[in-house]
Design a protein that fits this description.
Blueprint (H helix, E strand, L loop, with lengths): L11 H6 L1 H12 L2 H12 L4 H21 L3 H15 L5 E2 L2 E2 H16 L20
Antiparallel strand pairs: 1-2
Helix pairs in contact: 2-3, 3-4, 4-5, 5-6
Protein name: DUF309 domain-containing protein
Keywords: Plastid
InterPro entries: DUF309 (IPR005500), TTHA0068_sf (IPR023203)
């Protein structure tokens, strides 16, 4: 779904109803970081305001996890830190998503990396978007 610049940005409720949103979350939760980034990026271009910031946080955390797999530590630190900063104002449920949970897991990863741990095969829980569909 491509939006022209003349159309208004997606609202929060429209974002929640957009199938790309749930597809991006499913890819993210499977660890398909590159594909989830692409899906969230397509949505990001269709949003503004807080919705744009939320998606940017998801994008950056996906990129950070992608860098973990490539052992690009600088990329991990930059992307995860930026993602956490963008999600800082969402420390509650947004669109049924437990943002705090995502931030805690991501911050634990970031902390472990900054302490020199190799996380490519870590027992630490990976970034995961919990969503309440009920």
């Amino acid at each position: 779904m491509v939006r022209s610049s003349a159309r208004r940005p997606l609202s929060c409720s429209e974002l929640y109803r957009d199938p790309r949103f749930f597809h991006g979350i499913a890819l993210f939760n499977k660890g398909d970081w590159y594909s989830s980034h692409d899906v969230f990026e397509s949505l990001w271009g269709d949003t503004s305001g807080s919705e744009k910031l939320l998606l940017q946080g998801f994008l950056q955390i996906a990129v950070g996890n992608f860098h973990i797999e490539r052992n690009n530590l600088n990329g991990v630190i930059i992307a995860l830190s930026s993602g956490l900063m963008n999600l800082e104002s969402f420390r509650f449920n947004v669109l049924g998503i437990d943002i705090n949970y995502l931030c805690i897991i991501t911050a634990n990863y970031l902390d472990a990396i900054q302490k020199g741990q190799d996380l490519r095969n870590s027992e630490l829980k990976r970034s995961f978007i919990q969503i309440d569909t009920g």
